């Protein structure tokens, strides 16, 4: 295996399937089966999920709201997604700990890096929800922060496209895909992998990022085995 401890970042929208908003149980189950296959190889897995399928899906007025309130609503949405993913993982026999950057005692444990590392090393999966627990930070920044706290080998950012392109491949069929790209070139070309804070934190700590298509079955397994899938940023 190329990676022993990973942090898998999924968007909230990826849980919608073909729905306009919310959570598609069949989509969640497909992701869980991909995760389970990798887990059974002995890989330690932490997960971070966005919340756009719930907050942006239910409220089109989010941009008109107070930023702090809107950010807390988004963080709560990630907790709901984390609960849904945890439920599916547990039903598939995978012991999973849900931890939150927001204090919600009856739902999730408070995030403590040492406890999270201990859980991972003893065979539990860990879901980090609630972002950083503070407004003005995205789930991308939360993902990088948690990856650094648990000493993850890599961040795997699952998307709906095959990797990083020089332009939007959904709008421009001629877009060129990068198999590997440096942090510097990403910044020079203004390629939007993550928000600036998240990317700067990853670059400063030399944390590699792989952007790949999570919807294609087997991609996650191929990455773990060292095959070239998606785009590597380091």
In terms of topology, how is this protein built?
Layout (H helix, E strand, L loop, with lengths): L4 E6 L14 H15 L4 E6 L5 H4 L8 H25 L4 E5 L8 E2 L2 H9 L3 E5 L9 H11 L4 E6 L4 E2 L11 E2 L1 E2 L1 H6 L7 H9 L4 E5 L5 H6 L6 E3 L1
Parallel strand pairs: 1-2, 1-6, 2-5, 3-4, 3-5, 6-10, 9-11
Antiparallel strand pairs: 7-8, 10-11
Helix pairs in contact: 1-3, 5-7
List the main descriptive attributes of the protein structure presented here.
two-stranded antiparallel ribbon, alpha/beta, about 230 residues
CATH topology: Carbamate kinase
Total beta-strand segments? 11
CATH architecture: 3-Layer(aba) Sandwich
What is the makeup of the main sheet?
Answer: 9 strands, mixed
3D structure, described in words:
The chain is an alpha/beta fold and 234 residues long. It has one domain: Acetylglutamate kinase-like (Carbamate kinase). It has 8 helices and 11 strands. Strands 4-3-5-2-1-6-10-11-9 form a 9-stranded mixed β-sheet, with helices on both faces. Strands 7-8 form a two-stranded antiparallel ribbon. The longest helix has 25 residues. The protein starts with a strand and ends with a strand. The model has no long low-confidence stretch (mean pLDDT 92).
What is this structure, in a nutshell?
The protein has 234 residues and is of the alpha/beta class. It has helices at 25-39, 55-58, 67-91, 113-121, 139-149, 183-188, 196-204, 219-224; strands spanning 5-10, 44-49, 96-100, 109-110, 125-129, 154-159, 164-165, 177-178, 180-181, 209-213, 231-233.
């Amino acid at each position: 295996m190329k990676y022993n401890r990973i942090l898998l970042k999924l968007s909230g929208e990826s849980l919608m399937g073909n729905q306009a908003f919310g959570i598609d149980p069949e989509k969640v189950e497909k992701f869980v089966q991909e995760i389970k296959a990798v887990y059974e190889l002995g890989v330690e897995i932490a997960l971070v999920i966005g919340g756009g399928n719930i907050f942006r899906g239910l409220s089109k007025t989010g941009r008109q709201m107070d930023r702090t309130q809107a950010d807390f609503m988004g963080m709560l949405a990630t907790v709901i997604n984390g609960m849904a993913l945890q439920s599916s993982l547990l039903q598939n026999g995978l012991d999973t700990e849900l931890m939150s950057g927001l204090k919600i005692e009856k739902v999730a444990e408070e995030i403590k890096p040492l406890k999270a590392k201990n859980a991972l090393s003893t065979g539990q999966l860990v879901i980090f929800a609630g972002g950083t627990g503070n407004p003005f930070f995205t789930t991308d920044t939360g993902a990088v922060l948690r990856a650094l706290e648990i000493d993850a080998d890599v961040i795997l950012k699952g998307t709906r496209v095959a990797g990083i392109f020089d332009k939007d491949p959904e709008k421009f069929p001629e877009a060129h895909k990068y198999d590997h790209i440096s942090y510097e070139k990403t910044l020079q070309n203004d390629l939007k992998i993550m928000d600036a804070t998240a990317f700067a934190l990853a670059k400063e700590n030399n944390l590699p990022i792989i952007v790949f298509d999570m919807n294609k079955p087997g991609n996650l397994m191929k990455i773990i085995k060292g095959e070239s899938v998606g785009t590597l940023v380091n």
